[in-house]
């Protein structure tokens, strides 16, 4: 068989897309490899969210080009594909700047890869038009063996695209408008994953809680209603979802956190800033106090909630006082984990055209202060679990002999000393110690979700 190497950057959606590309190419005679130098096909599945994303891709393509030359010298052909959001944004520019690239394909078009790869080398192609057809209708189902090989936790795309048009974000331009998959197709995929041993599903989408898919009865289903249906799938014990927008946390979804034991008490809900003026400039369409009140409502429904968020510091025009408002919001709300970044302009977004860019040293100082506070909160949350008993989904062998590794309901990594091999089991663990990035504990017995 020919071999394919896929390198994914960025979000969980890209991880999911990479798996689906591998599934699709398996039927074309490709097997996956973790060693790029032995690959007949190299796919860079790119992300455009972070600073200088395109330049990082071109730098990586330089290394892949050299590998391609070395293989050609040995009489081995290598094709190079650039996929994902940088492909969508850069298009023909990639072929111009990186002559070694054979195919450029956007995130809505990768189902066309088998056809594109059959074209002769002289026909280097770009496929970034937003298609009319649903790519999921053209993707083959992964084999049971492939699913089992990926572990007991899986991503499941239920929605793509975004209609929010935050002024700093490229997603509406690279992923397109919001589109939700029908409930029946999601359920079919969930049943297939569960049959292969998956115990935990993370529902993903660029704006996942804006889900509005067609139900079996023809009506529109919300994410809350979908969670209720997926909680009934035999074998699926845990449900998560990401990434959400505060404007789409409706009553039905909040109630699902209260009523469904399968929905984990962990929520990633980006706020980005604590300043109302900055939130307005970002086109977030909520205020800092609305965010605070929303969190209070969710915590009333689910008192054990662990909260995660995203923050951008140094948005154009942000003053010292406005940054302090973000610091106050973090202190008021309290987060178990978070992601924080310096603002960086994305070409083509409205914020990139604002003249009042914050100097880099100021952004760096603000980010350091914010990350210090967020890290203090993360460590406090982790240390607060010491002495507690938590259900842990065991996912793999630990780093050392006699260990197993898994995840807590709060998405924390947990290491357990045990000689048993129990991948896929949910067990009760007494947490004895909190390290810098993992919890450590003792196996107590079967978890409360063990029979789910």
From TrEMBL:
Its cofactor is [4Fe-4S] cluster. Binds 2 [4Fe-4S] clusters. One cluster is coordinated with 3 cysteines and an exchangeable S-adenosyl-L-methionine. Residues 148-380 form the Radical SAM core domain. The keyword Metal-binding applies. Its main location: cytoplasm. It catalyses: N(6)-dimethylallyladenosine(37) in tRNA + (sulfur carrier)-SH + AH2 + 2 S-adenosyl-L-methionine = 2-methylsulfanyl-N(6)-dimethylallyladenosine(37) in tRNA + (sulfur carrier)-H + 5'-deoxyadenosine + L-methionine + A + S-adenosyl-L-homocysteine + 2 H(+). It is found in: Cytoplasm. [4Fe-4S] cluster 2 binds at residues 162, 166, 169. NCBIfam families: miaB-methiolase, MiaB/RimO family radical SAM methylthiotransferase. Monomer. HAMAP family: tRNA_metthiotr_MiaB (MF_01864). Catalyzes the methylthiolation of N6-(dimethylallyl)adenosine (i(6)A), leading to the formation of 2-methylthio-N6-(dimethylallyl)adenosine (ms(2)i(6)A) at position 37 in tRNAs that read codons beginning with uridine. This is tRNA-2-methylthio-N(6)-dimethylallyladenosine synthase. It comes from Microvirga terrae.
């Amino acid at each position: 068989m020919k071999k394919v190497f896929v390198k994914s950057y960025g979000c969980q959606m890209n991880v999911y897309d990479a798996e689906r590309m591998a599934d699709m190419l398996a039927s074309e005679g490709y097997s996956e490899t973790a060693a790029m130098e032995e690959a007949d096909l190299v796919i860079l599945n790119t992300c455009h969210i972070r600073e200088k994303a395109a330049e990082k891709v071109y730098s990586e393509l330089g290394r892949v080009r050299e590998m391609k030359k070395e293989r050609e010298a040995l009489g081995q052909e290598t094709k190079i594909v650039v996929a994902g959001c940088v492909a969508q944004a850069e298009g023909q520019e990639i072929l111009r700047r990186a002559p070694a690239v054979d195919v450029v394909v956007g995130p809505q078009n990768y189902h066309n890869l088998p056809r594109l790869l059959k074209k002769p080398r002289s026909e280097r192609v770009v496929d970034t038009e937003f298609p009319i057809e649903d790519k999921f209708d053209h993707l083959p189902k992964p084999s049971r063996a492939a699913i089992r090989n990926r572990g007991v936790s899986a991503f499941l795309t239920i929605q793509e695209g975004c209609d929010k048009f935050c002024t700093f974000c490229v997603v509406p331009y690279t992923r397109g408008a919001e589109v939700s998959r029908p409930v029946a197709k999601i359920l079919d995929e969930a049943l297939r994953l569960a049959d292969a041993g998956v115990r935990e599903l993370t529902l993903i989408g660029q704006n996942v809680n804006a889900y509005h898919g067609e139900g079996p009865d023809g009506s529109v289903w919300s994410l809350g209603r979908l969670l209720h249906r997926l909680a009934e799938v035999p074998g699926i014990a845990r449900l998560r979802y990401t990434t959400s927008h505060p404007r789409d946390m409706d009553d039905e979804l909040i109630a699902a956190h209260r009523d469904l034991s399968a929905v984990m008490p962990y929520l990633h809900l980006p706020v980005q800033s604590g300043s109302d003026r900055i939130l307005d400039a970002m086109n977030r369409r909520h205020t800092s106090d609305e965010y605070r009140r929303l969190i209070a409502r969710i915590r009333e429904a689910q008192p054990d909630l662990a909260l995660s968020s995203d923050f951008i510091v140094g948005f154009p025009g942000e003053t010292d006082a406005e940054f302090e408002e973000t610091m106050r919001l973090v202190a008021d709300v309290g987060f178990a984990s978070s992601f924080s970044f310096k603002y960086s302009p994305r070409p083509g977004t409205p914020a990139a055209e604002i003249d009042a860019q914050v100097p880099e040293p100021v952004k760096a100082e603000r980010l350091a202060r914010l990350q210090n506070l967020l890290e203090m909160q993360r460590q406090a949350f982790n240390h607060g679990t010491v002495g507690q008993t938590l259900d842990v989904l065991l996912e793999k062998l630990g780093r050392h002999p006699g260990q197993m590794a898994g995840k807590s309901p709060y998405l924390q990594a947990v290491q357990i000393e045990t000689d048993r091999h129990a991948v896929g089991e949910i067990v009760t663990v007494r947490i004895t110690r909190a390290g810098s990035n993992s919890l450590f504990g003792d196996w107590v017995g079967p978890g409360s979700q063990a029979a789910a």
